[in-house]
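Standup, Tuesday
Yesterday: got the pipeline producing structure tokens again.
Today: sanity-check two examples.
Blockers: none.

Example 1:
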Amino acid sequence: MKSDDTYLTIAQPSDEILYKEKNSKFFGYAFPVTTEEDVKQHLENLRKRHVGAVHFCYAWQMGTTQIVYRANDDGEPSHSAGAPIYGQIQSFGLTNVLVVVVRFFGGVKLGVGGLISAYRTAAQMALEQAEIVERTIKVHFIVSFDYKNMNKVMRVIKEKNLDVIGQKMELSCEIEIATRQKNAEMVQETFESLFEVLIQKL
């Protein structure tokens, strides 16, 4: 059962799948992504790989607390490609994922209904190939303190089992920590109750 501070995504790029419909070939791919730069890179790679393909239709969704998404028909009739691909991302309940379906036209027009069905099927097959994993939504904080208070800060980090992301240990120290979203408030309050220790959410 997925809890409030976890999300589903894919572990690594899926294997290429091929779906054929009336001589048209639809190659489907799913990639884990966290930035639009990732999306661009994957699309560029596929364009190099499939020279001669007519359409590179895709949809992506990113984010956990604030969701952003995009669906692109890449020259197919409006809502006949990107939307059904995005529909599959939603039906699998995924985020931080890009699904691309590359089409080679086979000379027979499929009509809008046929296109929707083909793009949806190729997207579904690509996601079925992918390994779906559950990840935790993390909240990051910076804890600032003088060196003399190091022990009490480290004690809390150990007791609360917090992830240390980075640290700067000089006369004044800074540690970046991460905790799962549902514990964030409690962690913040714990540090705020310590004398001479500052905590701020990133």
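Example 2:
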Amino acid sequence: MSYMEPEAKIFSCSNSVYLAEKIAKSYGIELGKVTFSEYSDGEFQPSFEESIRGLRVFLVCSTFPSSDNLMELLLMIDAAKRASARHITAVIPYFGWARQDRKDKPRVPIGAKLVAKLLESAGATRIMTMDLHADQIQGFFEKPVDHLFASTIFLPYVKSLNLENLTIASPDMGGSKRAYAYSKFLGSDVVICYKQRKEANVIETMEVIGDVKGRNIILVDDMVDTGGTLTKAADMMMERGALSVRAICTHPILSGSAYEKIENSQLLELIVTDSIPLKKESSKIRVVTCAELFADVMHKVNSNNSISGKFLM
């Protein structure tokens, strides 16, 4: 007697449909139908247009700003719980508010912990996400967290470049663990950038620890926001004799003048995933989809199979 995988359904928040459709196609099912009713004052209400009683539901929603995305996810989780779903997995390719993972000065919130509690209180029974800004955020949850790494889709691309004299670089001290993990799999050297900020999104000073002369550099980071750190690091490394500088960033937030900074910098290429939709196209930005990664892990979770093979870092 062959084993039948339990039935599952995939639904999406309104701003993540572009990715959810690719995940559903890779999973092998149609994206579930959900509608959003909106009141004139901006209040909205999701409604599942098909039965989910007794099923595992995957709710795909990256919680990038505005906060409406997070609110949509919370309401969908609550609706699924009240519709008697058996398991409710919040699939959050980009986990927003993750930079608030600790008190870095007095009288500030720990936003990531608050979001974790909100998701659990709404009724999520499992969390699936990718490249959290800080690994310890997993500990904010009492429910299982599948923390996937985009390295599983980035590394094949990097290897396909066949770069000689490859060096992996971290744009800051906090990303050194990620840089060393990439270098281990690629057999490359590592350099670290040391930076000091005057305030959020504003860099005061930056220095490079290590030799970049005659090397092809790949900067690795979990996200790119204003692009200030990456472009400053790329320009500095080229000034110090690097042959080329590319960057790998999982989540393309790309706010403010990020696109202009990237276009005007000496970055040869910025490789990102589609965890967040690009606001516009750029000749320097290459998007690698994470849909197959999530679909594969969702299959394994639904059939109670191990997903440890997806953790390259």
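Quick observation on example 2: The mean pLDDT is 93. The first helix runs from residue 17 to 27.
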